[in-house]
Every structure is written in C-alpha cells, then in structure tokens.
Specification:
- Helix 6 crosses helix 7.
- A hairpin with a 2-residue loop joins strand 11 and strand 12.
- It contains seven helices and 20 strands.
- By secondary structure, the protein is an alpha/beta fold.
- It folds into two domains: 282 residues, Leucine-rich repeat, LRR (right-handed beta-alpha superhelix), CATH 3.80.10; 37 residues.
- The protein is elongated.
- It has a nine-stranded parallel beta sheet, with no helix packed on it. A four-stranded parallel beta sheet has the order 6-8-10-14, with no helix packed on it. Strands 17-19-20 form a three-stranded parallel beta sheet, with no helix packed on it.
- Bound molecules: 2-acetamido-2-deoxy-beta-D-glucopyranose (6 copies).
- The site of one 2-acetamido-2-deoxy-beta-D-glucopyranose has 4 residues, from strand 19.
C-alpha cells in the first residue's frame, strides 16, 4: 500500500497477523509509533520509509529471524538501535537513514553474517565505529542460499522464494557518488556498502574497515572522526565511492590509495590532512581540487605546489631520486628524444638547402654576414681592451 495518503497509526490489529511476509507502507503519512506487540515471526521485507513514525525501536522485530530488508528511513524514530538486532540472522539491508536515532552503533551488528548494506546516515549516533563490522558479498550470499537449498526445511522455501523476488517490495534508496539511487531485485544483491554520514561519531577509523575488500561504497562524512586514514584502505579493491569529508582527520594520505582502480567519487575535503596528495595517475588523475579543499596543510597537485611552501619534504626526497616516480618523465627517454629531434631538424635544413638553390644562396649569404659581423665584433673588443 505504498505511495498513498494513508494517515494515522499502524493499527494494533497488525499484531495478530502471524504469517505476514511483506509489509510495504512506505511513502504515506503514517504517524505514531510501531506497536510494541508487533513482531510477525516470518516477515521478510519491511518497508516503512517516508512516513512520520516516531517513538523508539524496542523489541518489535527481534523475533523476526527471517527478516531480510528493514527499511525505516525518513521517519522520526528515536532512541537506540536495539541490541537484540543480532537475532536477525538473515538481515541483509538495514536502512535507518534520516531518523533521530542516538546512542552507539551496537557491536551486535557484527554478528549479522548476511548484512550487505548498512545506512545509518543522518541520525544522532555517537561513540566509535565498531571495528568488527563485516559485510558479506554477493558471492558469499549465493553460496549460502545454495546451502539452504540443499536442506529444505518447512518455512525456508518461502524465504528462498521471496529472496528471489526482492522486487516485490519497494526499491531501497541508497546514496552513492553523491546521488540517491534506488536499488531493487537482483541489483540490490550486488550492492554492498556502509553509510554512517551525518552523525556524531568520534574516535579513529578502524583499520579493519580496509579488510572489507568487496564493498562498493563507504561514506563516513560529517562526523567527528580523528586520526589518520588507514593504509589498509588500499585493499578496498571494489570501492567506487569513498567520502571521508567534513571530519577532523589528520596525518598523511596513504599514497597506496592510487591502487583503487574503480574509485570514481572521492572526497577528503574539510579535514586537517597534511603532506602530499597522492600521485595524479590512474583514477586519481580525474579528481580535481574540490576533493582536497579545506585541508590547509595539504600540498601537491592539484593543490598548491609543495616546493613553494614546505621545502623540507623536497630535501627529504633527494636520496630517493634513483627510484623513478610514475608521475614524472623518465630522464633517459627525455635525452634520447631530444637528440633524435635535434638530428631531425639538422637533416631537414640540409635537405631544404639541397633541393632549393635560392634558399641555399640566401642561407650561405646570411651565415657569411653573421660570421663577418661577429668576427669584427670580437676583433673590435679585443683591440679596445
Ligand atoms: C499528513 O497529516 C498531517 C496531519 O495528520 C497533515 O497536516 C499533513 O498535511 C499530511 N501530509 C500529507 C502530505 O498528506
Ligand atoms: C555522503 O553523505 C553525505 C550526507 O549524507 C552526502 O551529502 C554525500 O553526497 C555522500 N557522499 C557520496 C560520495 O555519496
Ligand atoms: C568477514 O566474514 C567473512 C565470512 O564470514 C570472513 O571470511 C572474513 O574474514 C571476515 N572479514 C573480517 C574483516 O572480519
Ligand atoms: C591487503 O590484504 C592482503 C591480504 O589480505 C594483506 O596481505 C595486506 O597486508 C593488506 N594490505 C594492507 C595495506 O593492509
Ligand atoms: C580536531 O582534533 C584536534 C586534536 O587532534 C583537536 O584539538 C581539535 O579541537 C579538533 N577539532 C574539531 C573541530 O573537532
Ligand atoms: C591540525 O593538525 C596539526 C598537526 O598536524 C595541529 O597542530 C592542529 O592543531 C590541527 N588543527 C585542528 C583545527 O585540529
């Protein structure tokens, strides 16, 4: 019943609906809180986004162990993310964007082995980013569903059936590359990412995030994160969109980041990073100054040059000159091409003089004039002194 003008609270009678598999009331005008007795055992997809739901999430979904999609985005839900979330062993898509949730991100999230998309952006979450966060990948997911297939148990048939018909529910909206895209059906199963932007998260970015090598999107912008960018991020080989802007990150940018070959949207703007920007090669050749702006201590292309403001790093680079940097021209190649073009010019002049008698005469006349005038010039000066 999505995209209607339904008003009022979710009726308490919903608590008696035992075999509900999909609940889709998104984009209505539903208010009030989720009844605490609500908790359909077999439910698979819940889409309640874009309503006016308020109150806190308590134990409503804790017994729904088949839940795959929980999309409660764009409501006014408050309170903590319940600890009992670790009971939702099938949960793949957790979308709680744009609510008033507070407290810490519970470590219980790490127990969810099927999770592939976490969007907790635009809330009031505080504390550290749990270092144990782990997302699954489409390959692992497919393996797992094959395993369920081989041991059919009453009930799991439904789960399989509805996992394959994800498109029955609303599409899930997820922001990547600065745009909100909607994902549904099979496409959703290939999407993997974490969006914790616009919260009050503190502490350092756990280096373990760099081991989530299959994620496509990571957005930690608009928080209060400190410390450095972990060099393990060079292992995020599938990442397409990486946003760490508007934090308080410091230290150097790991130069290994240039190894991220799928990166198309990247921002480190408005932090306190220092040192040199990564070499402008591969994907990094496409990023302009806006992804580094607001870091006054940062230098190198496409920002201000490092030599003018901070000479010490240039001196340090002296001993390593033997190692050729990908960003610069190979000096051997440069000299060879210089000599080759010099010889080419000489030969062209000779050929032209050989073919055209008029120019030949003009050329010899001109060189003779030059020779004579410079001869007398030198003789004049020598005789004066
Ligand atoms: C939603 O309901 C409130 C009152 O319950 C009303 O003021 C508001 O106009 C409604 N919004 C829409 C989009 O229908
Ligand atoms: C990261 O999140 C912020 C706020 O939610 C959003 O404005 C920005 O576009 C996102 N970045 C990317 C690269 O999608
Ligand atoms: C994430 O989970 C997978 C499978 O459950 C495991 O192989 C992998 O080592 C875990 N990664 C991290 C960083 O914990
Ligand atoms: C990237 O991952 C590989 C294998 O998991 C590991 O050996 C290597 O140390 C990692 N690199 C970084 C910079 O963490
Ligand atoms: C950033 O972190 C430094 C310490 O690392 C602290 O002194 C400063 O107040 C922080 N700035 C903001 C805006 O949080
Ligand atoms: C930025 O980092 C430098 C050290 O790298 C520190 O001295 C300075 O206080 C930091 N500025 C802010 C605003 O945190």
């Amino acid at each position: 019943m999505s995209n209607n003008g339904l008003e009022g609270p979710i009726p308490i009678d919903f608590c008696r609906v035992q075999f509900l598999l999909i609940l889709d009331l998104s984009n209505n005008n539903i208010s009030g809180s989720l009844p605490s007795c609500f908790g359909p055992r077999h439910i698979i997809h819940v889409h309640l986004s874009k309503n006016r739901l308020e109150g806190s999430l308590t134990t409503q979904f804790c017994k729904s162990s088949s839940l795959v999609t929980l999309d409660l985005s764009d409501n006014q839900l408050s309170g903590n993310i319940p600890d009992c979330i670790n009971m939702l062993s099938e949960l793949s898509y957790l979308i709680l964007k744009n609510n008033n949730l507070e407290g810490k991100i519970p470590c219980q999230l790490c127990k969810l082995q099927k999770l592939s998309l976490i969007d907790l952006s635009q809330n009031h979450l505080s504390g550290h980013i749990p270092s144990c966060l782990n997302l699954t990948t489409d390959e692992q997911y497919n393996e797992d569903s094959n395993q369920i297939n081989s041991t059919p148990v009453a009930g799991t048939t439904f789960i399989l059936l509805f996992r394959d018909t994800l498109s029955l529910g609303e599409p899930v909206h997820f922001t990547t590359k600065n745009m909100a895209y909607s994902y549904e059906g099979r496409l959703l199963t290939y999407m993997s990412g974490i969006d914790l932007s616009c919260n009050k998260l503190i502490g350092e970015i756990p280096y373990e995030i760099g081991h989530l090598s299959k994620i496509h999107v990571l957005n930690l912008s608009h928080n209060f994160l400190v410390g450095g960018i972990p060099s393990t991020f060079s292992n995020l080989t599938q990442i397409e969109s990486l946003d760490l802007s508007y934090n308080n990150l410091s230290g150097k940018i790991p130069p290994e980041l240039v190894e991220l070959n799928f990166l198309s949207t990247f921002s480190l703007a408005y932090n306190n990073l220092s040192g040199k920007t990564p070499a402008r090669i591969r994907q990094f050749a496409t990023f302009d100054g806006s992804c580094y702006q607001g870091n006054p201590l940062l230098c190198g292309e496409p920002m201000k040059s490092c030599s003018t403001r901070s000479p010490p790093p240039m001196i340090q680079e002296g001993p390593t000159q033997g190692k050729e940097d990908d960003g610069f021209i190979d000096m051997g190649v440069f000299y060879v091409s210089l000599i080759v073009s010099y010889i080419m010019v000489l030969m062209t002049i000779a050929a032209v003089l050989y073919i055209n008698p008029y120019w030949r005469r003009a050329w010899f006349y001109y060189t003779e004039m030059c020779f004579i005038s410079s001869y007398y010039f030198i003789v004049d000066h020598l005789s004066k002194s």
